[in-house]
């Protein structure tokens, strides 16, 4: 066979749209089947990582890790969607994306799902699985035919870039916890080696290595269950049962200034930490009952709600206020997760989202922030409003079609929320909280930092959640 002619290309320009050299393009050591196999296996593992992170959110007490898992679960979901789309371009249905590619991969994910130790979990995700996925993307980028399989090379590059950033932040958290839990460090190396042995038994994530014999032991009991619906908070969340201040009642009262209302806006944003805790359990409990697109869009919404919580945190920091001194109530997520099934929880979520769309909802909050003179509050509420419009659309796509009409869907959500017992008196009588009115202390500190005297009427605000929901409807 004669070598290809080289003089047909422009002497001063790159050939083949800059994808590769002509020499590389003439090589034939690649196939569509090889590409599909690797993509499907990376897809399986990244979807597994997404599910592992989601299942960890509610029961993880450390605030920063709740936020980290929310973010990284969303990023993995985006990459899973990229992979599903690419495989769909190369094969007609059925695509087999929900099939287990190899038992060794399944066992690896199953072992990690039963891991009760945070340090080991972080190491498994970021030092093992994400690291192996990055290497698989690098191999795909190198091995795939750069012209014939250019779309796969592209997503391999995109995934490698994003996974590398994801890994860096995850490993930084892992290294931070290592300093606190030095007594557990000895177990990490054998744990990681065990997981690598399981992956090796599958020929690696992308089947590019000869498979080995799997280890003959399981690290954790097959009956061990780590997934927890009831939310947990770390020690910085003091008095979390406290429902002694109703911020919505303050926000919608015309007697109070827009500047003072920003405090309640920041509180409401930070308190949104409870939404990822609820949404995570919806996704876990409905795993096999809804298609991937449902999980993808709900993961985006979950991450948005986590961002909103961090906006509230940032707002308090911008005013020099220590948010850990404020009781951040968690009984909304606790009560929903323990009293309702996933469809009912979704109904409550949808009902609340739709209630935020009228002028008295997110638009009103943005107007308050705009009037307040606090540019950060205005910025945050601008994006919070945009996010909630998206969330309402997600609800209409995935929740409403289960009912005869929008009104029926809304009525069901309202009815579900009405059935949730607030346990306001019960928590007080059990000694879990005295529902202390924390508003005067926060408002006084806020005024002192601004060098002004507290307004007496504003200082005297004292409305609780004893008789009203967050939408100011009376509790039954």
Short description:
The protein contains 19 helices and no strands. It has 476 residues and is mainly α.
Describe the model.
The longest helix has 31 residues, at 150-180. α2 (32-57) runs antiparallel to α3 (63-90), α2 runs antiparallel to α5 and α5 (118-143) packs parallel to α7. By secondary structure, the chain is an all-alpha fold. Helix content is 61%, strand content 0%. The model has no long low-confidence stretch (mean pLDDT 94).
Question: What descriptive keywords fit this protein?
Answer:
476 residues; mainly alpha; Ferritin; Heme Oxygenase, Chain A
Q: Output the CATH topology of the largest domain.
A: Heme Oxygenase, Chain A
What's the tally of helices? Answer: 19
Poorly predicted parts: none
How many strands, what sense, and barrel or not for the largest sheet? none
Estimate the helix proportion, in percent: 55-70%
Please state the CA-atom Rg, rounded to the nearest Å. Answer: 26 Å
What is the ordering of alpha helices and beta strands?
HHHHHHHHHHHHHHHHHHH
Overall mean pLDDT stands at: 94
Distance between the termini: 85 Å
By CATH, the architecture of the largest domain is named: Up-down Bundle
* CATH class type of the largest domain: Mainly Alpha
Strand content: under 5%
Give me the secondary-structure category: mainly alpha
What shape does the CA trace take?
globular
Number of strands: 0
Our count of domains comes out at 2
């Amino acid at each position: 066979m004669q070598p290809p002619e080289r003089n047909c290309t422009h002497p001063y320009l790159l050939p083949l749209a800059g994808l590769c050299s002509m020499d590389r393009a003439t090589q034939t050591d690649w196939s569509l089947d090889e590409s599909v196999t690797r993509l499907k296996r990376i897809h399986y593992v990244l979807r597994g990582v997404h599910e592992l992170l989601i299942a960890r959110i509610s029961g993880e007490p450390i605030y920063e890790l709740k936020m980290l898992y929310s973010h990284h679960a969303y990023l993995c979901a985006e990459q899973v969607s990229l992979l599903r789309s690419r495989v769909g371009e190369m094969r007609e249905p059925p695509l087999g994306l929900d099939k287990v590619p190899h038992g060794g991969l399944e066992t690896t994910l199953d072992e990690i799902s039963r891991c009760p130790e945070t340090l080991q979990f972080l190491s498994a995700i970021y030092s093992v699985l994400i690291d192996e996925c990055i290497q698989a993307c690098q191999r795909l980028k190198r091995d795939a035919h750069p012209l014939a399989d250019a779309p796969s090379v592209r997503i391999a590059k995109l995934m490698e870039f994003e996974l590398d950033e994801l890994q860096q932040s995850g490993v930084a958290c892992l290294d931070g916890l290592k300093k606190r839990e030095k007594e557990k460090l000895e177990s990490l190396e054998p744990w990681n080696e065990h997981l690598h042995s399981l992956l090796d038994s599958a020929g690696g994530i992308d089947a590019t290595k000869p498979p080995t014999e799997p280890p003959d032991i399981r690290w954790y009991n097959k009956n061990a269950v780590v997934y927890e619906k009831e939310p947990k908070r770390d020690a910085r969340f003091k008095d979390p049962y406290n429902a002694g201040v109703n911020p919505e009642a303050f926000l919608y009262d015309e007697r109070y200034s827009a500047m003072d209302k920003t405090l309640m806006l920041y509180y409401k944003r930070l308190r949104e930490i409870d939404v990822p805790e609820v949404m995570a359990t919806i996704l876990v409990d409905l795993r096999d009952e809804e298609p991937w697109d449902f999980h993808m869009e709900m993961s985006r919404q979950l991450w948005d709600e986590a961002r909103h919580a961090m906006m509230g945190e940032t707002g308090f920091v911008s005013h020099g206020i220590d948010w850990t001194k404020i009781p951040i109530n968690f009984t909304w997520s606790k009560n929903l997760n323990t009293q309702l099934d996933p469809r009912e929880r979704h109904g409550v979520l949808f009902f609340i989202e739709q209630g935020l769309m009228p002028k008295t909802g997110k638009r009103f909050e943005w107007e308050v922030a705009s009037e307040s003179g606090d540019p950060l509050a205005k910025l945050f509420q601008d994006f919070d409003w945009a996010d909630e419009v998206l969330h309402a659309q997600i609800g209409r796509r995935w929740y409403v079609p289960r009912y005869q009409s929008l009104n029926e869907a809304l009525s069901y959500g309202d009815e579900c929320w009405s059935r949730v017992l607030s346990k306001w008196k019960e928590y007080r009588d059990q000694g879990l909280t005295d529902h202390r009115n924390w508003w005067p202390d926060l408002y006084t500190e806020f005024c002192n930092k601004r060098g002004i005297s507290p307004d007496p009427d504003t200082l005297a605000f004292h409305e609780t959640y004893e008789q009203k929901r967050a939408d100011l409807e009376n509790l039954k």
